[in-house]
Amino acid sequence: MLASEREQLKSEINEMAKKFNHHRSGLIPVLQHVQNVSRHISPEAMQDIALAFDIHPVEVQGVVSFYSFLSTEKKGKFIIRLCRTITCDMAGKDAVARQLENELDIEFGETTEDGMFTLEFTNCLGMCDQGPAMLVNDDIHTKVTPDKVVDIIESYRKRFGANVIQGEHA
Amino acid sequence: MEKNVKNPKIGADRAPASSVAASVEVAKNQDELGAMVAVTIDGNEIKVPFGTTILDAAKKLNIKIPTLCHHEDLKVAGVCRVCVVEVENQRTLQAACAYPITSPMNIKTYSSKVRKARRHNLDLMLKHHVGECYSCFRNNNCELQSLAKEYGVDSYRFGHDTEPHHEVDKSSYSVVRDMNKCIHCRRCVRTCIDLQEVGVLEAVNRGPDLDIATFDDMPLGEVVCINCGQCINRCPVGALRANDPSDEIWEAIDNPEKHVVIQTAPSPRAAIGECFGLPAGTSVTRQLNTAMKRCGFDKVFDTNFTADLTIMEEATELLIRLKKALVDKDANVALPQFTSCSPGWVKYLEHFYPEYTDNLSSCKSPQQMFGALIKTWYAQEAGIDPKNIVSVALMPCSAKKFECNRPEMQDSGYKDVDYGLTSRELAQMIQEAGLDLPNLPHTDFDDPIGEATGAGLIFGATGGVMEAALRTAVEIVTGIKTENVFENLDIIPIRGFEGVKYMEIKVPAAGPVPEILSKALGGAKDFSFLKDAVLKVAVAHGTANAKKVMEDIKAGGKFSECHFIEFMACPGGCLGGGGQPIPTSPEIRKARTQAIYDEEKTLYSRKSHENPTVDRIYGKFLTEGPCGHKSHKLLHTHYVKRGKKIV
Amino acid sequence: MSKSNKNLIVFSEIDIEKALKNALQKSRPDIINEVRDSGLKGRGGAGFPTGIKWNLAASAQGDCKFVICNADEGEPGTFKDRVLLTDYAQQLAAGMVLAGYAIGAKEGIIYLRAEYTYLKADLEKTLEDLRAKNILGENICGKQGFNFDIHIHMGSGAYICGEETALIESLEGQRGEPRNRPPFPVTVGYLGCPTSVNNVETFITALHIVEKGAKWFKTHGTEKSTGTKLFSVSGDCENPGVYEFPMGITIEELLNQVGGQDAKAVQVGGASGNCIPRHQFSKTIAYEDVATGGSIIVFGPHRDMLQVAINFMEFFCDESCGQCTPCRIGTETILEGLDMIEDGCCSVKYLRELVSLGETMQLSSKCGLGQSAPNAFLSIVEHFKSELFDDSFRR
Ligand SMILES: Cc1cc2nc3c(=O)[nH]c(=O)nc-3n(C[C@H](O)[C@H](O)[C@H](O)COP(=O)(O)O)c2cc1C
Ligand code: SF4
Ligand code: SF4
Ligand code: SF4
Ligand code: SF4
Ligand code: FES
Ligand code: FES
């Protein structure tokens, strides 16, 4: 991360923390913001966040590492989260998973080289009546079939730019 | 959202998960609530105050419930689940350590359900516990091992890892972390975050991946760890230990070229007996001297001598600062002056309050003063080449290991102190030598630095440094015998385990400046500049309490008006240090304190300036007196503004 | 709601403004009594009587109190809250206002799971609309001195944050680790204040109860499980979806309605629930028989129950907060055992040991997750043991 970027992010962190009176109840909203804009929460960001809330950096890390939507590793612009829980599993998530890997040429847990897509499993998305279900960033896709996979991926490639999370700068 | 934040104070409520959820507050004043609840435990009835935990109620009946994550000094966690008991009419078992009694109940502490659950939970912990008891420093003093025995663990029901899954972190001079033995009880986390408020360790990840980690998994030696070792004292197993130099020390002892001297701090002698089955609070000073001699140390010195010396230097430094502030009206004088003998505290300040390093007394700790003197003065007097001296310091403290490795600590031209050895480690050496410490004959300390006063001895307890300093300062400044100011020389308000203690003393008279100080005080004839001044002092022990005082000072509160503040990193002071025998608890620390205060009453003097060796050293070696040039070179130091930023 | 479920009883249209105005005429104890008399039990799974919970929160000492809507719906096979958040958001907000009035809270928080971020914008808009209509804000519906507002707090991906004390920890910026209980949130909750945490469906149901009366509610369901409830039905059936059924319906009846007649087993209550084999389909779904937060997963005749057990146990390994021993290591140990069965290398003796371990987890885990994590495993072992060791079922 460039120094100027760190400064920019830091001032955003401080501004948000201030809104919460620097009370720890604002920690997770701040983490969510940082995750959104820089697609991960770097050690530097954790340190700055810790300072903003006057807690210890390792406590911030404890929180980040707890939640599956927060990460210390940089994620792709689009995070594909395929449901692996029971009904989606019964509805054929394995075939969808295989095809996702094939189309993106990565395995689950990895990010494409161009930094566009990260592939992850997730647990029940609350779309069990319409499985297999998957999230791409915040969008939900249901009744995904192996042959739909490529179109979904393509639609994001094309929408790249428009769909990239607002305010992104890292 | 913002408007409803209850406690907008920065950093409030910082307790980590599960600890905030401590049980209902126990009624302190029973009449106030009028609530005593009758419970039946294993058929025995007892009435307890509303909110008492099942564990505490059982203790009152002498019923033992096993625990692992529970520790008297720490907030309730309720995570290991070995303390579970059966409460009638409840679907599940309840954690005795966490369950507050608020209504009459019938409790069974060893029903078959309970025993089965405890055994299973032990089996599960042992599954990932990579360690072999015979090669573990906690062998025979391990809570997991004892429970495994009590619950008849004769096989690993769910398997047992033998391959380590973590690298042992030996990066720190003081603390070694072997997470392969960790059972995730989080006592260290609660120690470091809540008790000490340093915040080095925290639980990371979740589920089976849960780990105890430092920030960004950095080596312990590179984070803000202050080396206090309080986490070691509270770890139920061998996952945390001090960096043990005893092999190197044995080697030096075996080497005929080397002259191995050991200085012994005041606290180990009041605690080491615990490693030999003596009850807490049994002082074994002179047996210990014999043991060290028999182990092969060439000389056994008493660190209390340099404690006395520290008082001379530190009190002089304080008087200099006061004079500068009051007489010279120098606005840049840093007051209050902070004590600097606790290396954990020093590092804490360097990390968290670096802007206050000027307030730290420039005096080295007694250990390091002694170190510098052994390889200079003692070497000279004894006619030994300092390069052949191996200087060991028996300390109650793990941070002393870090301290002796600070690059500043080489003023003798050599590493002033070669090894910091903890009470636990020396106990181990004594056992290795086959010595039965409690039954050894008595031996005195070695000359030329044999005698020390009671003032040096009480350095071991919180408030002790302040008390010793006041005994000397009051007498010097007022010219009145301290015992005529404080009855029996006991300065009660700054004793005891209150987190922060505060005291004001009105200076009743101004005595003449003694010859020895006249140079340091710029030729002042008497202390009239202090007459009728109100001297304000405070004492804080445990860095969480230190933090309270520091925040108050930052905010310009009452402690900012103090003149002198004693800080100790460890709860209870050095006698609760991170190198002391395990376990620790408020009662144990209390007993050790008592032992120290009892022993000091037997000493020939209880005022540092009456120590004849102190006189001698100023007469012959540090001839410019306290805070003179040579003192400054050998006995004083400087500090590093570390800051708390890691990345 | 599923198209096949036309005659909605509780989840019908309602004029929320009118309903609230009526409710705010009543005294707080009257509202709480109405809800208590209805016998409504929490719809989030634990089934604690809502009236009693509100009463505890109302009578707890505290200068600030909170109403929290648990919209962290993460139980596998549960999606009724998603439907409610989409189609019944106004009713939800009104239900929360009602709860706020009843317990004396000024602030409501919707804890919305991260996976439902796509619902957030519409929810925000609904809240905005309600503010415009003075259903949220100050002097609500003209009731002088009654102020209440709601904001949304997003989760960050952790099933355990559906557990109410973990949810509160999470709101406070902590790892979502359940607290020791007691004290319960009704006395020591968010920021130490008395807090009533309720499920989405609970709020909406309570709103209807206060409007239509406890008596009306009790005409449905059984004596101990009053009223109707939403069911999220998924798996091997013709018409998966959300249904409203009266409590006390038999599993068989339910399966008939959703087109799951040939099921060999049904998982009632999601991953934390129990697996009910065909020969027990005459059981009823009710707190006194087979309890559930509303998840019904249907397993057809060809399903490999070992895979089902493995999938559930993987879920718990993934979602355990990891603080307590039985759950952190127990889930993983049972999963390893199931893998051994799959690989054909598990002795029945060891399986028995695992069953016994499962019982320990139920008894000694710190929270509901660990206490219910072994349920599916235990019931599948109980009812399908022979199948577990039968290779012909492996896919
Ligand atoms: C592991 C676990 C997950 C839970 N998840 C949810 C959930 O997603 N939604 C919910 O309403 N309740 C959930 N609960 C139940 C809550 O703890 C709590 O009982 C409920 O929100 C209370 O609301 P109710 O009384 O309206 O049911 C969960 C409980 C546990 C133990
Ligand atoms: S930590 Fe305890 S149980 Fe483990 S090896 Fe050491 S002595 Fe044995
Ligand atoms: S030694 Fe002290 S500061 Fe370091 S980790 Fe242990 S408790 Fe924390
Ligand atoms: S290191 Fe020791 S104290 Fe810390 S969690 Fe592990 S076992 Fe407990
Ligand atoms: S049972 Fe599981 S989820 Fe609940 S506290 Fe224990 S480890 Fe955490
Ligand atoms: S199981 Fe996949 S959405 Fe519920
Ligand atoms: S000692 Fe009670 S749960 Fe650990």
Question: What do these coordinates show?
Answer:
The complex is a heterotrimer of chains A (170), B (647) and C (395). In chain A, helix 1 packs antiparallel against helix 2. By secondary structure, chain A is of the alpha+beta class. Chain A is elongated. Chain A has helices at 3-19, 27-38, 43-53, 57-64, 86-90, 93-104, 146-159, and strands spanning 78-83, 117-122, 134-136, 139-141. Chain A folds into two domains: 3-66, Arc Repressor Mutant, subunit A (Orthogonal Bundle), CATH 1.10.10; 78-165, Glutaredoxin, CATH 3.40.30. With 647 residues, chain B is α/β, with parallel strands linked by helices. Chain B has four domains: 34-110, Ubiquitin-like (UB roll) (Roll), CATH 3.10.20; 128-241, Alpha-Beta Plaits (2-Layer Sandwich); 246-305 and 367-439, Rossmann fold; 306-364 and 451-635, Fe-only Hydrogenase (Larger Subunit), Chain L, domain 3 (3-Layer(aba) Sandwich), CATH 3.40.950. Chain B has 21 helices and 17 strands. Chain B has helices at 30-33, 54-60, 112-127, 143-150, 187-195, 230-234, 246-254, 285-295, 304-326, 343-352, 366-382, 399-403, 423-432, 454-457, 464-478, 482-485, 515-518, 543-554, 586-600, 612-620, 629-635; strands at residues 36-41, 44-49, 84-87, 94-95, 105-108, 175-177, 202-204, 211-213, 240-242, 259-264, 299-302, 337-338, 389-395, 419-422, 500-506, 534-541, 564-568. In chain B, helix 12 (399-403) links the parallel strand 13 (389-395) and strand 14. Chain B is globular and about 80 Å long. The relative contact order of chain B is 0.11. Residues 1-24 of chain B have low confidence and may be disordered. With 395 residues, chain C is α/β, with parallel strands linked by helices. Chain C folds into three domains: 2-217, 3-Layer(aba) Sandwich (Rossmann fold); 228-299, Roll (Ubiquitin-like (UB roll)); 305-388, NADH-ubiquinone oxidoreductase 51kDa subunit, iron-sulphur binding domain (de novo design (two linked rop proteins)), CATH 1.20.1440.230. Chain C contains 14 helices and nine strands. Chain C has a five-stranded mixed beta sheet. The longest helix of chain C is centred in the last third of the chain and has 21 residues, at 368-388. The model of chain C has no long low-confidence stretch (mean pLDDT 96). The interface between B and C is large, with 50 and 51 residues.
